[in-house]
Amino acid sequence: MANRNQHWTPSLDGLTDDDAGHPPEPATPSVIHDAMSFTEMCERFKCYFTDKINTPQNVRALKASTVVTRLAEELRDDSQNPATLAALLWCRAQFAFSADDDSGEGVDMSRAMACELVACEFTSALSAADALRYLCFELPSEPEMEVQESGVRPGNNRESGYGTISESSTFLSGFSASGDVEEGPGSDYVGLNTLEIAVMADAKRFISHRPVQMVINGIWDGSISFWKKLDIHGSKTPHFYNARKGDPYLRLRVPKYQKVFEAAFFTVLLALYYVVLAERNPHHITASEGALFVFFTAFIADEISSIIDSGVQFYAQDLWSLLDLCMVAIGVIYLVLRIIGVVEYSDDITDTAFDVLSLEALLLVPRVFSLLTLNQYFGVLIPCLKQMTKEFCQFCILVVIIYCGFLTTFSLLARDRMSLKDTAWLLIYVFFGSSYAGFSAMREISPVLGPPLMIIFVTLTNILLITSLISLLSNSLTSMMSNAREEYLFMFSIMVLESSTSNRLVVFFPPLNLLPLILLRPLRLILPAARLRGLRIALLKASHFPFAAAIMAYERITGVKETRHTNWGPARTPGAGASISSVSRRPPLAGLGIFSSHGNHRRSIVGLPSEWTGRLRLGPQAPVQNHHHHHYSQHQQQPTKSSASSTRSARARTIGNMYRDQDTMGDDVRDQEMRRMGKMLEELTRKVDAILEHHGTA
């Protein structure tokens, strides 16, 4: 195996059509090593894919390419740098940003897909603890990156991007990679973890990859937590939740519970909205309207806090966030107009304020039912609606250009008989299907030129433009529905990450989020940060006790699954329940825990434990069988190590392929494939035991 510290020199031995008929070429030198910083890894990966992929390729060709498989093998066998996945996804964003076209067949898009495929293959070989460490790795700030480049090794908490942090988020604070790394969509990722970088890079294949979804599902239901203690020295460290040691108030950070309380908040807000519109008192502000003011203010403060925590780019990824901004704008206009109307005793301004408030129902009613997007059917429709809206807005540019041309011509022809306003509305009627209105007025516009121009306009709009628009939206919908699973999981992942990855230790639910603004915000001028953080924690415990008690009662009734010692992934190393930053990389013994050694026993595990299936079922659990080893002397075990290592790598590749292929298999076929693979590996285990026993007796 090549020296891991050896500097890599790029070559141009890309994949050719004759590769299938020739023996495999020698393995390429190590592309990366563990001492590299994130910036250096990005540069190496980018140079590697740029030199190796020079022609457009589809996904099928890339999966069979040695460019992808060799790099995936090297990373799976040797890499222990937690920034590996983040660097691959960074390169994916860079290549996608500089793609020649949007068809997905350009050279840069092929390189982007190759980066994503390598990331998927590498993730398939990770254990649960390692997957958590790699996927939740957070990019450090520039000073921290300088510390890393000066020689800080794993074990330092800052090396993994975590540590004691302030109440203010550092998301999107302007990180700029050095060297050959270009400015682009991946240059502002400081403070984002690997999962968030995948979202920003639009890596939907990676996000929908089964091991990644297991981590996201764990974050969603609280099996994975980012905070261990709720005190002034609390640090952000991803770990598996331990119900016996966890702080009950930290369960308020679980996205599943946050969404439930958020839906309750919007329900109360909608009820107050209907009460205020039913009363409609123009002369003074009633108690219900005052309560509506409080809820609106709390909602606005919560949205501002979300933008600060997530960053504008990541916040805008969620369609509901855009609707929330529209609700905030309507609410602010209503509050201002309503206060002005009451102060100046103006009935007109007051009526305008209530008219503006009536617009809020267009967004508030759908927002109350936003939890329906957790269902896959409704969850797919939201991304489809968002994409079709983009397509429609782009198409409207052509419509406006054509409309302005005809409007100018018709208004000049009918300048003595029709006003510009009447002509504009007439063309709008014609565009939306009222052709008879145009034919009735065409001679009034111009006896000579009016009829032929109107026929051209009707044909162009009602036949060509409308038909083209319908076909365009239909193709967009078909394309989205063909990737329904990826689109749904991508949207779900955005919702989970937006709710869980804030750098704030203390988060208040609205409308209680107004309490720290009123009581503690002025104290920032006189109290130190540690003291102020302690007061925020005390205020959280005092104000959110009912919420925490309800959560604990629910978990006590339903039962919380223990995931601290999960067996997903390869064989668990000792101390898996410890801090993620201190867990060493598992050997690539076939990445999914199908074989797990502990002590003198070997277990054969088919499928995955229920803790990690989450909302994606992998099929029924097969029984666990125990096979006892024989004890051998040191000289007897030594000859079998190389064979075991090669068998282990072969198993890793087999399981990686199985993981990759499962994304396109149906549930029934997947279950059959899992059972068949389990039986095959059990048979392989028995043969290996027989060989070892034969060597031992010999």
UniProtKB/TrEMBL annotation:
Limits of the Calcium channel YVC1-like C-terminal transmembrane domain: 266-557
Low complexity bias locations: 634-650
Region Disordered: start-end pairs: 1-29, 565-584, 616-650
Transmembrane parts of this sequence: 260-278, 290-308, 320-341, 361-385, 392-412, 424-441, 453-473
Keyword Manganese appears in the UniProt entry: no
Signal peptide: none
Domain of life: Eukaryota
PANTHER family: ION TRANSPORT DOMAIN-CONTAINING PROTEIN (PTHR35859:SF5), NONSELECTIVE CATION CHANNEL PROTEIN (PTHR35859)
Name the UniProt record assigns to this protein: Calcium channel YVC1-like C-terminal transmembrane domain-containing protein
Classification lineage: Eukaryota, Fungi, Dikarya, Ascomycota, Pezizomycotina
